[in-house]
Amino acid sequence: MGRGEHKEHKRKRSRSKERKRSRSRSPRGSREHREHRDRDRDRERRRERDTDREKTRDREKQRDAEKKKEKESKTAIFEMEESRNDTEEVMKMKEAELLQGVERRRRNVEKWRAQKKKEELDLQSEQSDEKSEKKPWNLEDEDDEDEFDIKNEGISEENPVKMEEKVEKMDTDDEEDPLDAFMKEIATKNAKKTGNSTQKASGIVTIVQEEKPEPEKGQVLENEDNMDMVIDDFDIETAAASLCHKGRMLAQTDHSKVYYRKFKKNFYIETEEIRRMTKAEVKAYREELDSITVKGIDCPKPIKTWAQCGVNLKMMNVLKKFEYSKPTSIQAQAIPSIMSGRDVIGIAKTGSGKTLAFLLPMFRHILDQPELEEGDGPIAVILAPTRELAMQTYKEANKFAKPLGLKVACTYGGVGISEQIADLKRGAEIVVCTPGRMIDVLAANSGKVTNLRRVTYLVLDEADRMFDKGFEPQIMKVVNNIRPDKQTVLFSATFPRHMEALARKVLDKPVEILVGGKSVVCSDITQNAVICAEHQKFLKLLELLGMYYEEGSSIVFVDKQEKADDIVDQLMRTGYNSVAPLHGGIDQHDRDSSIADFKTGVIKVLVATSVAARGLDVKNLILVVNYDCPNHYEDYVHRVGRTGRAGRKGYAYTFVLPEHQEKMAGEICRAFETAGCKPPADLKAMFERFKSEMAAEGKEVKLGGKGFEGSGYKYDEGEAEADANKKRMTRLTAQLQRGGTQARYKV
Asked: Which value, to the nearest 10 degrees, does the dihedral of the CA atoms of residues 192, 193, 194, 200 take?
């Protein structure tokens, strides 16, 4: 390297050092800058990483949701196919049974026809032999004999045809006579026909050729007891429905041949606080709880808190969730009695919490038993008189059943049975049902849908109506097919004396709990009675709705379905659009929809018959109007009891006609007095005048009839007499009019 090159190299090095020095002095080259830059980069990386994780998490959630939907759709499709297969299996079995019966009956009829034809031919041959023996033979009569043989052949050909036609005619008849009577009739007619043909043999006989009808193929014989009826057109659906109808005759179970597993009834453990209560303290506490009256041996003391009745933590959480602060009067006494394993008759006013009184012990009873296996029926059965009450009890039971891992099924008439059968076949520890549909389900598919072998807890809700003459046979069919050592409880707001004897058929040494007296209107309800004519009722109804419409929902009770529809139309014309009817003539789906809308407040006014008077619980129901006065005291109690439930205030108005309802005026006065209220003066005076008039005729007026009885409401004495007087007046008016017309003609 030369001297010049060395200097140049040295110059470059100095420049490089200066650049490094200046770079190190700049802010970007400082340590703080580098640390800040590194932090920014790390923050950016973390942000990108978090974004990627969120995207991954969202994708996983979306994937899980899609998998869940796919699984649910597959499950729904599988359940639909299973339900469809079950229905098809039931139909196939019924069809096979019908076809077997048809084939058996067809063979019997063919065999009988062949036998009758053979007997007829034998009888004719014997008679012809006797005739030929009696007639002496000679050469001159040879031609006549040949002619006679030809005539007899015609007769023998003619008679089977007529006999066959008669058989076909009688077979196609509509089950007029049983088979034995038919056979005797045919035998008598054939004997007469043979006798006539023998008498005509000595004279001139004309041979009439008749066309024999071809036997129709595919004929189906029905009704095994009457084999003379032949049906040409066979409908498998009609036959299946007929079999289902016959299945309502539920077979009686022989309990001596069935092995029943032992079960525990008594779960009640008395707490120290309850144990220390003396008899005087218990009596005072029962008096404090709406004057509880108890009948029975060794009845437990009433409880004060939920913890004292032995409910578990899950049930306690549900009680807190739905704000059940403490037991009501009926619950305080009934729950320890049922938990002790006793049969119970509970009588309390409407809205007092009777449903929860039998549900809590029922859950404890079920949880103590082994889980259901395949083919097992329910452990607890709750029978209700109406579909609406069954649905309401079902919803109340579901509040506790889901946290406890139990299943509840509801079966009632008026809707399709296939879905209800599917729920039962999947297994349910609790079944809420109406009596008729329960019998249908038990008899369906030869008893393979469900059974009562595991039932150890039976509830009859609204017991007085359940033991009405129309329900008692169905109730007893179900009860008699349940094991004899079951635990049975009955609850109702009314319990007439004549029903108690019937109720004791299914009870074993029961404890009777009476809260506040039988058939009492709740003290939270303000009762009112208005005496007005029929044409004044609607204006009075509009006045009441104007007062209470904004405060809550209202129910208007009438006697007839047509009147309910008419009042709904009139209210809608006057501007009340959120109104709907509720009666037995409405489809079940529409009834359920109306009740659901009424509970949620979509419908503010419900115009109903007494079908809504049982078990309907609506929280914001403020007003009940008896547009038509009830027929008896118990019906009045249940109608009015739709309001003022669970400690809320309510108002009840009853429209009483000034004529023909004097007897019911006395019943309403009785309801006022038993609830601790003073009846209206004009209503009391109306009843007193009626009593005086009856006393003048030598008749005594008695209040407190039998209440619910028979398949419907009956006229009381006053109404029957009023109806008879009205008919007499109508006849008298007609006679007077006819007399006036005749007088004018005479003039």
From this structure: 110
How far apart are alpha carbons 423 and 409 in whole angstroms? Answer: 6
Q: For 115-134, what is each residue's pLDDT tens digit?
A: 888 888 888 777 766 655 55
List the structure tokens of 30.
């400082």
Place of tokens 């029957």: 720
Q: Are the CB atoms for 246 and 98 separated by under 8 Å?
A: no
Question: In whole angstroms, what is the distance from residue 445 CA to residue 441 CA?
Answer: 9
User: Length of the chain, please?
Assistant: 747
Domain 273-515 in CATH 3.10.300.10? The answer is no
The letter for the amino acid at 697 is E
Helix (H, G, I), strand (E, B) or coil at 430: strand
Q: Is the pTM of this model over 0.70?
A: no
Question: For residues 311, 312, 314 and 320, what is the CA-based torsion angle, rounded to 10 degrees?
Answer: 40
Task: Dump pLDDT digits (tens) for 420-470.
Answer: 999 999 999 999 999 989 998 998 887 888 999 999 999 999 877 776 656
DSSP states along 109-131: HHHHHHHHHHHHHHHHHHHHHHH
Q: What superfamily in CATH does domain 525-714 come from?
A: P-loop containing nucleotide triphosphate hydrolases (3.40.50.300)
Helix (H) or strand (E) holding 431, with range, is: strand 430-433
Q: Which residues of 398-421 are buried (b: 16+ CB within 10 A; e: fewer)?
A: ebbbeeeebbbbbbbbeeebeebb
Q: Read off the tokens for 525.
A: 């309800």
The ranges assigned to domains in the chain are: 47-135+142-204+218-247, 273-515, 525-714
Residues 6+ apart with CB under 8 A from 655: 530, 532, 537, 540, 625, 626, 627, 628, 629
